[in-house]
Amino acid sequence: MTRPITAGVDGTEESLAALDWAAREAVRRGLPLRVVHVWRYEESLAAADRDTQLRWVSEGVREAVRTVSGRHPGLEVAVDVVEDGAARALAGAAAGAEMLVLGSRGHGRVVGFLVGSVGQHVIAETARPVVLVRAEDRPAAEAAGRDVVVGQHGGPEDSADALRFAFETAAARGAAVRAVRAWTLPPVFAYSPGSLKLLDDEGGLEPYERRSLAEAVRPWRERFPEVPVAEHVEMGSAAQVLLAAAADAQLTVVGRRAHRTAVGARIGSVAYGVLHHAACPVAVVPHR
C-alpha cells in the first residue's frame, strides 16, 4: 500500500508552509499528498449553523490546495475535513501516512519552534515520522550544498529508523547526509573491568565512538551509494552537538523514544531540545 505524505492544515502561515514543504517532498518521492483539516463546530458563531461553518472551512482548505496543485500540476492530492479533537485526529491521520507534516510557530525572533500540547501529543503518540516546519521556511533552503543532518546514538539498531529517513530524504533531494554522534565522559563508578578492557582495546573513548558511528552508518552507505556522507563525532550534550552541526542544514532528523508518565506520553529531551532551537525543519522519527 502506498502511504501518502500528510499535511495538517489550519489556515495559519505555519501550516501553509508545512503544506508547501509536504507537497515538494511528495513530488520528490513520487507519493500522493493528503491534506487534513481538523475543525469543531463553534456554537459562539450564532449566525452560522454547522453546515455553514463546514462550508467555510472546506472552502478555505480547497483554496490552499488549489495553490499547491497549481505549483505541482501532476501531484495527486486528497483532502479530508475532520470534525474531531486536533490531537486525536492528527495522530490518526499520521498512522496511515509516510510522514505527517505540521506547522509550528518560531521560537523567538530567530530560531526554533514552539511546539504546543497538540504537537507534542502527536509526536509522542504516533509511530510515524513527524516533520515540523516554520512559516519562514522557503524552497531555497533546500538548495544544493545544505546537508540533511541526523543524530545517531547507541548501537546500529538504536538509530536505524532515523538514519533510514535521513538517507531516503537525502537521496530524493540529491543532498548529502551528515551523521552526528555526541559522547560524554561516563561517571567513574560506571566503569567495569569489562568495559575498561573494551575501551582499551578500542584505543580510548573517542576512537570507540567514531567506530560506533561508522558501524551504524555503514549499511546505509551501502544501500544509498549515491548519497555523500560525512561523519561527525564530538564530546558534549547530544542536543547541543546536533544543533551546532545542523546550523546550516536543510533538514535535521532526530530519533525519539516516547516516555510514558502519569500524565501521558512525552518526547525525549534530545528531540525536545532540537525542536525548540533548530533553525530548519525538524523530522522526529520514532524508534520502532
From TrEMBL:
InterPro entries: Rossmann-like_a/b/a_fold (IPR014729), Universal_stress_UspA (IPR006015), UspA (IPR006016). Residues 1-134, 153-286 form the UspA domain. Pfam families: Usp (PF00582). It comes from the Bacteria. Belongs to the universal stress protein A family. This is Stress-inducible protein. It comes from Streptomyces collinus (strain DSM 40733 / Tue 365).
